[in-house]
Amino acid sequence: xxxxxxxxxxxxxxxxxxxxxxxxxxxxxxxxxxxxxxxxxxxxxxxxxxxxxxxxxxxxxxxxxxxxxxxxxxxxxxxxxxxxxxxxxxxxxxxxxxxxxxxxxxxxxxxxxxxxxxxxxxxxxxxxxxxxxxxxxxxxxxxxxxxxxxxxxxxxxxxxxxxxxxxxxxxxxxxxxxxxxxxxxxxxxxxxxxxxxxxxxxxxxxxxxxxxxxxxxxxxxxxxxxxxxxxxxxxxxxxxxxxxxxxxxxxxxxxxxxxxxx
Length: 262
Hints:
The protein is of the alpha/beta class. It folds into 2 domains: about 1-20 and about 235-260, no CATH class; about 20-230, Enolpyruvate transferase domain (UDP-n-acetylglucosamine1-carboxyvinyl-transferase, Chain), CATH 3.65.10.10. About 30% of the residues lie in helices and about 25% in strands. It has a 4-stranded mixed beta sheet, covered by helices on one side. Strands 8-9-11-10 form a 4-stranded mixed beta sheet, covered by helices on one side. Strand 10 and strand 11 form a beta hairpin. The radius of gyration is 19 Å and the shape is globular. The termini are far apart.
């Protein structure tokens, strides 16, 4: 049986480079669907990121690692087609529903899986999509069909719960709509704020960032090309901060997290 033997009681000292946030990077990659060319820095090169990029490639987009953690994504020639079955192994694949529905009027994807951490029903996503005029067919796959603003039920919606991925999905749908949308009971985590900053840079007007009420005014055509640096992983920062406090140590965490980062 494997075991760890820890001899504590010693103060730590040194510098730790904090990785880019996976939870921030994944919705940004999905958001690239709405933008011809996206440049991202501080992207963690991990399996989930590569799987999201694989979906972009499957749809006819292109990506290139221009540096160790620098990514160029081009989606100008993206095509509308169902996501591959393997996409269902990645829970974050659901984030393509919003931008694909906005750009092409429909999206078809397998039910998302991923790690098993309790029940995570899609009701919050699906009900919010329906409120914004998207028809959702829950068959063998999830099929979203967007008829445009002419059939928009409501530009104001209240989420069933402050779901992070549902908030991000609706942000990505609204970003590609020529219609003002208000989300109440929105999630306000740092990676949601980072997505808002990314979309604002692309020409979307989002107010209320960091609060539970977001107001979005998107654009029906391609958004502006964007260069964006993914925020540092807040969970990693927290872990090392607790470690330093528990061991009465001095640890320098880089890159530093600015108060105005989002």
